[in-house]
Amino acid sequence: MTPPVQRLNDWTGRRVFLTGHTGFKGSWLALWLHQLGAEVTGFALPPPTDPSLFDAAGIGELVHHVEGDIRDLAAVRAAMAAARPEIIFHLAAQPLVRLSYDEPVETYATNVMGTVHVLEAARQIGGVKAAVCITTDKCYENREWVWPYRETDPMGGHDPYSSSKGAAELVISAYRRSFFEQGPALASVRAGNVIGGGDWAADRLIPDLVRAFEQGVAPAIRAPDAVRPWQHVLEALGGYLMIADRLIAGDRTIADAWNFGPADEDARPVSWIVARLQAAWGNATDPVPFTGAVPHEAGLLRLDCSKARALLGWRPSLPLPDALDWIVDWHRTVGAGGDARAITLHQIAEYRARAGL
Question: What SUPFAM superfamilies does the record tag this protein with (predicted)?
């Protein structure tokens, strides 16, 4: 029997160290943590895109912003020691598959050694109660089969990005067993393809579509038949916060790996996403086939989230059609001069009401 969803605890005054807070996903989490009352120190490089949600929503005004590179252990350790966090969320990463083919050394240095540096700093400074490391659904050795991947399936990855995230999971597991059995409670979380307003990354389907629709040009589609576990960013972040609540409360059974993915019917092909977002946008230009070089990317990927449902009471609350509508609403509001922070906080509040958080 699935346990009931538990509302998130009051985070007022709780000290949080958040890496990657200038990125899309990190910016959403920074705003949610601020809304919960947390005292957030963010450690990251400058925003990876222009525009960015970090700048549009004025997140630097809400958190203690430290500019730094997780490839620099001394810088990570100094920032973390100054922040004296109770909990760490590690999101900083090189997150793009296609870029990993162009920059494999940077990808491995950031995603693997960056994770080592964050965990080593947490081990050295003391006082950290819990850490949640965010990796990806692409950490699994993808066999292109119809069955969803469980947390116990082998790590792997064809491309540098995927394999770097699989390697990061091995690092997390080793630190948990070698150093953190009596120290910080350490969990890793693997989400599907997160989508939402304020994502302007290159070579990512939803941002590419939004840019094309805003400019009135035809979007170029690379792999129309590829199936991904699409989910709104708030679905994943809600799971991360549930994990963090349980870890801080001292429940070390939660110090493990977790999948957070959409309902089965929301694992859709790219072509379905394009058509649905085009209809929601209205007056959008029809897509065209991508004619450039296309390096290998996974064709079929699904996640088994039965563990999170059974042990946490977590479940998807925002169906994919609604998530796409929220994205259109976000970008149309901001594009018309609306307040990016206000619309983001509004969607967080609406999601919490739907999810019972």
Answer: NAD(P)-binding Rossmann-fold domains
Task: Compute the average pLDDT of residues 152-161.
Answer: 88
227-253 pLDDT tens trace: 888 999 999 999 999 999 999 999 999
- Where helices occur in the chain by DSSP H, the ranges are 24-36, 53-56, 73-83, 97-102, 104-108, 114-125, 160-178, 205-215, 233-248, 270-281, 306-312, 320-335, 340-355
Strand 39-44 relative to strand 130-134: parallel, antiparallel, unpaired?
unpaired
- Angle at 40 (CA atoms; ends 36, 42), nearest 5 degrees: 135
In three-state secondary structure terms, 71 is coil
What is the model's pTM? 0.94
- pLDDT tier at 95, thresholds 50, 70, 90: confident
d(C-alpha 304, C-alpha 314), whole Å: 13
pLDDT attached to residue 143? 80
Signed CA dihedral, 79, 49, 54, 308: sign only: negative
Q: Average pLDDT over the chain, rounded to whole?
A: 92
The CA distances from residue 255 to 25, 137, 247, 259, 345, in Å, are 22, 18, 7, 13, 29
CA–CA separation, 228 vs 268, rounded Å?
Answer: 6
Helix or strand holding residue 87 (H, E): strand 87-90
Selection from 94, 304, 332, 125 nearest residue 210 by Cα: 332
AA identity, residue 281? W
Residue 288, beta-bridge partner list: 220
Contact residues for 293 (Cβ-Cβ < 8 A; gap 6+): none
pLDDT at residue 183, as a whole number? 84
Instruction: Specify the length of the chain in residues.
Output: 357
Q: What type of residue is 301?
A: L
What pLDDT is attached to residue 301?
74
Q: Nearest CA to 191 among 356, 106, 286, 301?
A: 301
